[in-house]
Design brief:
The chain is α/β, with parallel strands linked by helices. 35% of the residues lie in helices and 13% in strands.
């Protein structure tokens, strides 16, 4: 029990630069309190003491602002960062090393009792502030859920989900974050500028337009060189674009690098 508590405290010290000491984490971090209180609640729930489990979780919700159903399963080193307003449903499962921020809902879309209604998070998943993960599907190891995303379908390992409804951005190397040779640096709130599919699409269009303009300019220059007689130059319009003026770098700066 104490080794697991030490592990929970250490994961907070590793992931939150605002945490300055073990004593501060123990006394001032509601995310840790919610995890610690969930364990007896879950034990009661799984041993037939349903009301007592719900009552402990209710007290934990009152004290921490984090609502975790006693039937939910939590792995090791789970960190609820800030986490006010987090709701974790009965059949939800949260894997080892996950980080969950404020306003997150791990909710269900089915009303059938006994069914798997809530999501399963793999290892090292980051669910950013305000995200809603709804349904009994799996979010793969090392995946990231962007702020305010609404996820209603499975997320592959290492991928990023952003938007409403969430769009899935595959992992750059096609592998889970925890399967790479060197462990990736933890990214607070899960999403970086490179994970925005809209900006990535715009940058792709800018690159394509710049390439096409370059090719057009080269074609007109080649046509002029092939015109051996002065009269043949008449086939080249006066307004033909012989040089590039597409400001790709400026547009990319506006979209974001």
């Amino acid at each position: 029990m104490f080794s697991r508590l030490r592990s929970d405290i250490q994961c907070i010290l590793d992931r939150d630069p605002a945490a300055r000491s073990t004593w501060e984490v123990i006394t001032c971090y509601p995310g840790l309190h919610a995890v610690v209180l969930h364990r007896p609640a879950h034990w009661c729930w799984t041993h037939g003491l349903k009301w007592l489990g719900r009552f402990i979780s209710h007290v934990a919700r009152f004290l921490t602002g984090i609502e975790i159903h006693p039937g939910a399963k939590l792995g090791q080193r789970v960190f609820f960062d800030h986490a006010m307003g987090v709701v974790v449903g009965e059949t939800a499962e949260i894997g080892d090393g996950c980080t969950i921020y404020q306003g997150v809902t791990l909710g269900g879309t089915s009303l059938y009792k006994g069914a798997k209604r809530h999501p399963t998070l793999g290892k090292d998943v980051v669910v950013s502030a305000g995200a809603k993960v709804l349904g009994g599907f799996v979010v793969g190891d090392g995946a990231k859920i962007g702020s305010n995303a609404v996820v209603i379908k499975p997320v592959p390992p290492g991928a990023t989900a952003v938007g409403i409804p969430a769009r899935i951005i595959p992992s750059k190397d096609g592998a889970s974050a925890d399967a790479t040779p060197e462990r990736a640096k933890f990214s607070a709130y899960g999403v970086t500028l490179e994970d925005d599919p809209v900006s990535q699409a715009l940058k792709g269009l800018i690159t394509s337009a710049s390439s096409q303009e370059h090719q057009i300019a080269l074609l007109w220059q080649a046509i002029e060189k092939l015109s051996s007689r002065p009269a043949a130059g008449d086939c080249v319009p006066q307004d033909a674009q012989r040089s590039e003026c597409f400001e790709a770098a400026k547009l990319n700066d506006l979209v974001g690098k």
